[in-house]
Amino acid sequence: MTRRQVRNHGGQALFHQYPSLEEALRALYPQHPWDSFRFSSSARALLQPAALSLTTKDQAELLQEVGRAIGIKQVLPPPQFCS
After folding, report:
1. Most-buried pick from 19, 38, 43, 56 (CB within 10 A)?
2. Is 77 domain-assigned?
3. Distances in whole angstroms, Cα of residue 43 to Cα of each of 17, 80, 83
4. pTM exceeding 0.90
């Protein structure tokens, strides 16, 4: 859910107290193991149906962005692809 969707459903006041939806949910439900990545624009992009029709190059770029967002520095190919 985006900030705009929250506002459109009457949740604008929420952002007067919390800077983001993630911060609000963390404060209101501290016992839940929230995953910050799921609040990122990269995650939203991956979850959209349009992401399924991306070119291979676009998929690679999106996955690189996701990797940076979650702290992946290097990905090695599987052993069967190494010579």
Report:
1. 43
2. no
3. 25, 29, 33
4. no
Cα separation, 16 vs 30, whole angstroms? 19
Range of the domain at 23: 1-34
User: What are the tokens at 81?
Assistant: 């692809």
pLDDT digits (tens, 9 = 90+) for 21-72: 888 888 988 888 877 767 776 656 666 666 566 777 877 777 777 777 777 7
21 assigned to some structural domain? yes
Separation CA 43–CA 76 (nearest Å): 22
- The length of the chain in residues reads 83
How many structural domains comprise the chain? 2
CA distance 83 to 65: 27
Query: What is the sign of the dihedral through the CA atoms of 61, 64, 40 and 54?
Result: positive
